[in-house]
Amino acid sequence: MARNATGPVTLTSLILPKLEPDIPLETALIDALSRKRVGLRKGDVVAVASKVVSVCEGRLVPLNRVHVSSKARRLARKWRMDARLAQLVTQEAEEILGGVKGFILTLKNGILTANAGIDLKNAPPGTAVLWPLSPDRSAEQIRRRLGRHFKTRIGVIIVDSRVTPMRLGTVGIAIGVSGFIPIRDERGKADLYGRSVKVTQTNLADDLAASAHMLMGETVERASAVIVRNSQVLRRTSLNSAVLKLGRSKCLIASNLGSLQR
Fold first, then answer.
1. Other C-beta atoms lying within 10 Å of the C-beta of residue 252
2. Rounded Cα gap, residues 160 and 173, in angstroms
C-alpha cells in the first residue's frame, strides 16, 4: 500500500469469469464485487482490462474470415507474422511506423502501440481481439452503470498493456478514461530547491493503469478488474483520455521516428 494525505491507497483485484459477447460487463463486475464483499465508494477508480471490454462488446474477429490483401502479405513476410493478423493491423491502425519479428509498430487512437492493440493471446480459439471501438465511451458507460448501482461517483479506466522503448516487458496504459481529471499539472509549482517547474505534468491515468496491470497479469490470472481506493484523483465527468494525447511535433519519441506509412 502507498500512503497519501488521507490514508492508504489500496488495490483490490476482482476475478471475472470467461465472458462472451453481449454479456453485460457491469453485471459481471457487480457480481465479482459481491463475491469479494466489497462495494464502491466515492472517489474509487475501477480499472478494467480492455480485453474483457472488447469481448463483451463483440470486438472479436474470426481469423478464418479475414481476407488477406497483398499489402498485408508483404508486411507479414517482412515481420514474420501471421498474415491474417497483419491484415487486421492494416485495417485498425491509423498509421504504420515499422516493426520487429512478430510485431508492427502502429499509431492507434493517437497511441503508439504494437499491432494496433490487436491480440491473439487469451482470445477465444480461432479469433483475434480488437480494442474497444471507443474506449472512452466504454469507460463512460461502465462508470454510469456502476455509479447508479452503488449510488456514488467513481472513475473508470480501460487498461491495456504496452511496451516502453528500450525496456523489457509490458506496463499498463489507460486507453479509455471517465470520471476524473487524468493528468496533474505540476507547472508553476516549486521543486525541492525553490525552482519553478517548467514542463512536468503527471499522467495519473497511466500511473493507475500500471498499478492495476501489475495485479491483472497477462496469462491465466483472470483478475480482469482492479478497484483503486484513495488515489485522490479529482472528479470531473467532462474529461476523457483525449487530454493525455500529445501531438507528434511535441513528442520526444514520435518526432524522431522519421516518415510514417499510411
1. 8
2. 5
* Measured distance CA(228)–CA(157) in Å, rounded: 10
* Helices and strands of the chain, counted as H and E runs: 6, 13
The CA distance from 125 to 240, in Å, is 33
Q: pTM for the whole thing?
A: 0.91
- 103 and 149 inside one domain: no
pLDDT computed for residue 258 by the predictor: 63
pLDDT for the residue numbered 261:
56
Q: Are residues 229 and 107 in the same domain?
A: no
Low-confidence ranges of the chain (pLDDT < 50): 1-5
CATH of the domain at 88: 3.90.1660.10
Segments forming the whole domain that contains residue 32: 2-58+132-256
pLDDT tens for 218-262 read 666 678 999 999 998 998 888 899 999 988 888 888 888 765 555
Decide: helix, strand or coil at residue 258: coil
Domain at 150, CATH number: 3.30.1330.100
The residue from 103, 130, 157 where one domain ends is: 130
Same domain, 144 and 204: yes
CA angle (181 as vertex; 180, 183 as ends), nearest 5:
140
* DSSP tag of 171: E
192 in the Ramachandran plot: left (φ > 0), alpha (ψ -120 to 50) or beta? alpha
Are residues 129 and 123 in contact, defined by beta-carbon separation less than 8 angstroms? yes
Nearest to 155 by CA among 176, 184, 171, 186: 176
